[in-house]
Amino acid sequence: MQNIYYQQDCDLNKLAGKTVAIIGYGSQGHAHALNLKESGVDVIVGLYNGSKSWAKAESQGLTVMTAAEAAEKADLIMILINDEKQAKLYKESIAPYLTAGKTLAFAHGFNIHFGCIRPPKDVNVIMIAPKGPGHTVRSEYQAGKGVPCLVAVQQDATGDALDIALAYALGIGGARAGVLETTFRTETETDLFGEQAVLCGGVCALMQAGFETLVEAGYDARNAYFECIHEMKLIVDLIYQSGFEGMRYSISNTAEYGDYVTGPKIITEETKKTMKKILADIQSGAFAKEFLLDMSDAGGQVHFNAMRKLASEHPSEIVGKEVRKLYSWSDEDKLINN
User: What is the pLDDT of residue 283?
Assistant: First the structure.
C-alpha cells in the first residue's frame, strides 16, 4: 500500500529560505502561486514576455519575471504549462540555470516519464499533482480546506526531496486533505488512461451516443439532452459525495434496477478489451508519440484542430446552449462565453 501523508507529516520549514518559481499562470499556476504566497512561501512567477497573465499576476501581489530569470533565481522550479510546450521551455529557459541542489517540480509526470525532459542527476525531480482543477485548488484553500494531491520523487539529489515535495503540498493546501505517494510512471499512465477511457473520452462519447439514440428514435432533442447529458452532473455529484452505494440509495428503485441489468450490456467484455488496448498504447508511449507529433510545429495541430471543430459541431452542443439558458445559474462562472 502506498503512503498517505497529512499536515502533521509535512514541514513547511523545508521551504524556508527558498524561492519557489511557478512557471505559468493558468488554472494550476495561479492557484499554486497564490496559495504558496499566502502560506508564507517566497514565490515568483515566470512568464514569457507579452503574456496576458503578467499584469494579472502582478495585480495579485506576485513578483513576475521571464521564465529564464525566474529559473535562475529560484531554488524550486515548478513547471505548470501545457505538456506539449514543456520540453522546449525547459531546454531554452530552465536547463541553463538548473544548478546542483535545485529542485525541478511538475504537476504531471508526462515529460519526465516519456523522456521529453532529462534533468541532470544533481537536481531533485519531484511531482505534486492536485487531483482537481486549479480553481478548486484555490477555492478549497481559501475555505480552509484542500484538494488531495499525489506526490512522487523521480530523483533525490539532496536526500530530502520527498520532504520538500510534502512541504510544497502543504503550502498549496493539499496536505489538509491527504497526499498519496506514487511514482511518475503510475501517475502518468493512470492519469492518461482515466482521461481517455473514462472521464473525458468515455463519458463524452457515452453521453453523445445516448443523445443520438434518442434523437434518431424521434424524441425531442431537448428531452434527449436533459436525460443523457444534463443529468450526468446530478449522478456524478452523488457518486462524488457517497460513492456508488450512496448514488443508488438516492435514486429510484426503477433506476437502480435498470442500472444493474443494463450497465453490463453497455460496458461489455469487448469494451474492456478496447480499454486494455488504450492502456497498452499509453504504456508503450504510442499515444505520447502521436500527441506530440500532432502538436509539434511539423504537425501543426492539424488533427487536433480538426477534431476540436468536429466536436463543436455535434448537435448536442447546439441544443445544449439552448437548454442551459433555462437555468438561472447558467451564466455564473461560465467557462466559455457563447
Answer: 98
What lies within 8 Å, CB to CB, of 47 at 6+ separation is 23, 24, 25, 53, 54, 57, 64, 65, 66, 67
Going by C-alpha positions, the residue among 165, 127, 137 that lies closest to residue 9 is 165
The whole-angstrom separation of Cα 147 and Cα 136 is: 7
**Of these residues, 30, 108, 113, 314, which one is catalytic?**
108
Instruction: List, for residues 114-138, the tens digit of each pLDDT value.
Output: 999 999 999 999 999 999 999 999 9
- Residue 127, classed as helix, strand or coil, is strand
From CA 184, how far away is CA 43, in angstroms rounded? 25
- Specify the residue for cell string 446552449: 321
Give how far Cα 261 sits from Cα of 37, 124, 183, 258, Å.
52, 51, 38, 5
Considering only CA atoms, give the Rg of the chain: 22
Average pLDDT over residues 161-170: 98
108 catalytic per annotation: yes
β-strand pairing of 103-106 with 124-130: parallel
In sign, the C-alpha dihedral spanning 159, 163, 164, 165 is: positive
Closest CA to 278 of 195, 209, 186, 185: 195
